[in-house]
Structures are given as structure tokens and as C-alpha cells.
Backbone:
């Protein structure tokens, strides 16, 4: 190794020790894993033993996760701290920086590169895949069964309510039928009216288009009457509030749907509770 690279490696090792402390020994219960993406953070925290997780993504503290994330090192998003940790497997999203992923592979690390799921079947497939990677397929099977049970409850709640629903978010963005939210609506039996606006993957709708469309319900990510910015203010426009007050809005927090994973069971149960509320 050239002296320059040797010095760099030593500096990285010293910095990592100062940040993470002594590196943990190899786990006796399964492979040691690093997660580079907040969505895989969420699934691994449910499936892996704590001793297996060497580090989580830099966004793990800012998103919904199961368990105490503060016990795990936070990664920078670069390759250096991952290389020092020497995991058996690095779990990453195909949206994570490609140059970082290629550098890790060039240094001999095993990468599991996952696409963003767009359907519930893809979500269940990724849960099983991560369960196999962590060495705990039984836990993955339990989470898939939990998701299937929640889906069955949601379908039962929707079975006699043929609602036309418009999934609406900041600045008038509508999630289309090809989106994950659109898939979630279709799986439960609710009708996504985005198609009537000509949106497949999604698009921006004007207030006039939404009012003219006359969906039965809006699906939004938060309730309340205070807007933190202009994007959120769109949802509180007097025209929308007139035709779609709280009694005509299904609220599912974005943290439950932004990643396809184990949290979707909770999202489906929230959907059932919201349908009961608006149906009164």
C-alpha cells in the first residue's frame, strides 16, 4: 500500500475509533450489518439482533424507527466509516450514492442493494430478503403475517364502503395509481381518483381540478389547521377546507408510508380507524 493511502487509512481508523469507540466483536448470532438507508434501518431494527447492527444511516434519528436508535453509531453516508467497521453485509438502497456503493464493492464488501418497493408484494419480498440476510427468516415471516393480517382488516373495513379517494400532499401533489400509496389504496379496495386527473405515477393538481373531481375523501399525511410553509398551506386553502373538512379527510402519517416496510401494518390499522371515524 502506498504511504499516502496507508496514512489515509490510519487517519480514518483513528477518526472512526473516536466516533464509534472500540469496534464490536463479530456477532455469534448472525452476520454483522451496516444499513445506509433509513428505510432499511427500519426493517433491520425489527429483524436483526442489536449485536448484529454496526451502524445506521445518517437519517435514522429523524425518521420513524422501532427501538432505541441512539445505541447505534450514525454513519456519515460516505464509504470510509463503513470500511472501518468491516461489516459482513452492507444494506443499501439503489438511490444511495452510486460512487459510494461502488467503492465499497471495490474494497471487497458484500452489498445488498434494494430498490424502493412500489407494491405490497414487493414490500413483503424485501422483508423476507432482509430476514434472510440477517439470518432470521422466522422473524421476517412473522412480520409478513402481521402485514397480511392488517391488510385483511383493512379490506374488511373497506368492503362495504366504495369510497373514491384522492391522495393529496404538499402543493397539490397527487399520488397516482403507479405509486406506492396508490398501490396501498388499490390493495384495500379503495378507488384512487388520481387516474381521473390523468396521473399514473403522480402529478400536481390545481384547487379547481380537485373541487371539480369531487372525490369522497382526501387522503393526507397530517391533520391540524396550522401551516408551517406554503406547501402545506395548500391543504388548508379555504376552498378545500369548505368541501373537505376533517370529517372528509383520512389522515395517515407520512412516516408510516414513506418507506415500504414493517410499519405498513400500523399504517393499515390507522386507515381502518380513520374509515371508522369518517364513516360515523
Residues:
Amino acid at each position: 500500500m502506498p504511504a499516502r493511502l496507508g496514512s489515509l487509512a490510519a487517519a480514518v481508523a483513528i477518526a472512526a475509533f473516536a466516533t464509534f469507540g472500540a469496534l464490536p466483536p463479530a456477532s455469534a448470532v448472525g452476520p454483522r450489518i451496516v444499513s445506509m438507508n433509513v428505510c432499511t434501518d427500519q426493517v433491520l431494527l425489527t429483524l436483526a439482533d442489536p449485536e448484529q447492527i454496526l451502524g445506521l444511516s445518517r437519517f435514522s434519528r429523524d425518521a420513524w424507527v422501532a427501538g432505541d436508535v441512539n445505541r447505534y453509531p450514525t454513519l456519515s453516508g460516505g464509504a470510509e466509516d463503513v470500511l472501518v467497521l468491516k461489516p459482513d453485509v452492507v444494506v443499501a438502497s439503489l438511490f444511495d450514492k452510486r460512487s459510494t456503493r461502488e467503492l465499497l464493492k471495490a474494497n471487497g464488501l458484500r452489498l445488498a442493494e434494494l430498490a424502493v418497493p412500489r407494491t405490497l408484494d414487493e414490500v413483503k419480498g424485501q422483508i423476507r430478503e432482509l430476514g434472510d440476510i440477517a439470518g432470521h427468516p422466522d422473524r421476517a415471516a412473522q412480520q409478513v403475517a402481521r402485514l397480511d393480517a392488517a391488510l385483511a382488516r383493512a379490506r374488511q373495513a373497506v368492503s362495504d364502503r366504495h369510497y373514491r379517494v384522492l391522495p393529496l400532499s404538499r402543493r397539490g401533489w397527487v399520488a397516482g395509481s403507479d405509486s406506492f400509496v396508490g398501490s396501498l389504496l388499490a390493495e384495500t379496495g379503495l378507488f384512487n381518483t388520481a387516474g381521473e386527473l390523468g396521473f399514473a405515477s403522480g402529478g400536481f393538481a390545481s384547487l379547481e381540478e380537485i373541487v371539480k373531481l369531487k372525490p369522497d375523501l382526501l387522503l393526507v399525511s397530517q391533520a391540524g389547521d396550522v401551516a408551517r410553509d406554503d406547501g402545506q398551506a395548500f391543504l388548508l386553502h379555504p376552498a378545500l377546507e369548505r368541501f373537505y373538512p376533517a370529517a372528509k379527510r383520512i389522515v395517515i402519517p407520512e412516516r408510516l408510508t414513506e418507506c415500504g416496510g414493517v410499519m405498513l401494518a400500523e399504517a393499515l390499522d390507522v386507515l381502518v380507524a380513520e374509515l371508522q371515524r369518517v364513516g360515523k
